[in-house]
Write a structure and sequence with these properties.
The chain is mainly alpha-helical. It has 16 helices and two strands. The N terminus is likely disordered.
C-alpha cells in the first residue's frame, strides 16, 4: 500500500523528507571557487564518488566513499557521503519515482539498509563533534553534522514519523546556521536552510502544532526558494541535488511552474546521462504539462534503456516506468 505523504497537509514527514539528501555534486570550477578546508586533499576522490552516485551507480559510489574514509578516518566527509548514497538506495527501492511532486514510499518499518545508514550517521556526527571540540575545520564540521541530521530527518519522513522528523530538522537548521556564522560563504548550508524555510511556510497546519510542542522555528516560502536557488547555482557539495529539489518544488501546487521544473530536470539528465531517473523525471513533467505523446515517448525510451540494467537505480526505474505505461494502456504488459 502506498501513502501519499507529499499531498497530506497533516504529515510533517514531507517537510523534512525533502530536506537535502545533498547529492553533493559540482563542477571543478565551483570547487576551486570555494575556500580551502581540511578535507581538500580528499576532494577529487569524493567528487569521483559523487559523480557515480548522481549517475545512479550507487555501489561504485559507496566503494569510492569508503576509500575517502580510509584516506582520512578522522574526517566526517566519507561517512556522510556513504550515508547519502545509502539513503538513495532506500529511496530508489521504496519510493514513488514517477510523480515529481511526491516523495511516497511503500509502507515499511525498515529496510535492510537501515542499520548501515544509522551507523554512518552516528559516525558522521561523532567525528564532526570531535573536530569542533578540537577547533578543526569548524564551519564545515557544523555543516557535515547538520547534513547528517538532514538525512536522519529524511528517513524518519519516509516512515511518516512526524515528531522525530521535526526534531531532526530543527537540529539540522541550528547546525547549518552555526556553519554560516563561522563561514558566511559556505553556500552548501543554504540548501538545507532554504528547503526548511520553504516547507515550514507552505505546510502551516502541522507546523503550528509542532511549534507549540518542540518550539519549531518558522520559515519563509520566498526566502526559502531564493536560498535553494543560491545553492542550486553556487553550491559546492549541494548544487545538483538542490537543483533536483528545486525542480520538485516547482511542480507543487504552491508554484505550478512546470516549465522551470522541466528545464532543471533536462539539465540533470544532460549532466548525468547514465542515470535513467532524470529522464524519467523529464517524461513525468511532460505528462504534467499535458504533453502526453512526448512524455510517453520518454517513458518508452527509458524502459528500453533499463531493460537489462544491473544497477539499483536502473532496475527501480524500469519497474516503475513499466507500471506507468500499463496504467496508460490497460491490458498491455510492459517488461
Amino acid at each position: 500500500m502506498r501513502r501519499n505523504l507529499a499531498r497530506n497537509p497533516l504529515c510533517l514527514g514531507n517537510i523534512f523528507l525533502i530536506i537535502v539528501a545533498f547529492g553533493l555534486t559540482m563542477p571543478a570550477s565551483w570547487a576551486r571557487a570555494q575556500s580551502d578546508h581540511g578535507d581538500e586533499p580528499m576532494k577529487n576522490l569524493a567528487l569521483e564518488g559523487i559523480d557515480q552516485m548522481m549517475n545512479g551507480d550507487l555501489e561504485s559510489a559507496i566503494a569510492t566513499f569508503q576509500r575517502v574514509q580510509k584516506e582520512d578516518p578522522s574526517s566526517p566527509l566519507g561517512y556522510l557521503l556513504e550515508a547519502d548514497a545509502t539513503w538513495w538506495k532506500i529511496y530508489y527501492t521504496t519510493a514513488n519515482l514517477i510523480d515529481p511532486d511526491v516523495f511516497d514510499v511503500v509502507y515499511a518499518d525498515s529496510t535492510p539498509e537501515d542499520s548501515r545508514f544509522e551507523s554512518l550517521l552516528s559516525t558522521t556526527i561523532d567525528k564532526a563533534k570531535a573536530r569542533i571540540r578540537e577547533q578543526q575545520d569548524v564551519a564545515r564540521s557544523y555543516l557535515y553534522e547538520g547534513m547528517a541530521y538532514a538525512l536522519e530527518a529524511r528517513l524518519d519522513g519516509l516512515r511518516a514519523k512526524d515528531l522525530p522528523t521535526a526534531r531532526a530538522g530543527k537540529k539540522m537548521r541550528a547546525l547549518l546556521l552555526m556553519a554560516l556564522e563561522h563561514d558566511p560563504h559556505l553556500t552548501d548550508a543554504y540548501a538545507g536552510i532554504g528547503l526548511y524555510n520553504y516547507f515550514v511556510d507552505t505546510l502551516p497546519t502541522i507546523v503550528k502544532m509542532l511549534r507549540f510542542l518542540i518550539g519549531l522555528p518558522g520559515g519563509s516560502r520566498e526566502e526559502g526558494l531564493q536560498q535553494l536557488q543560491r545553492a542550486a547555482q553556487h553550491g559546492e557539495y549541494t548544487r545538483a541535488e538542490a537543483q533536483f529539489y528545486l525542480a520538485k518544488d516547482f511542480t507543487r501546487r504552491n508554484e505550478m511552474q512546470f516549465e522551470k521544473s522541466l528545464q532543471l530536470f533536462q539539465e540533470l539528465a544532460r549532466e548525468f546521462p547514465e542515470n535513467p531517473f532524470w529522464k524519467l523525471m523529464v517524461g513525468s513533467v511532460e505528462m504534467r504539462l499535458g504533453q502526453r505523446q512526448k512524455g510517453e515517448q520518454m517513458y518508452r525510451q527509458v524502459l528500453a534503456e533499463t531493460a537489462h540494467s544491473k544497477l539499483i537505480a536502473g532496475q527501480a526505474v524500469h519497474r516503475q516506468v513499466a507500471e506507468a505505461l500499463e496504467k496508460l494502456h490497460p491490458g498491455e504488459k510492459f517488461e
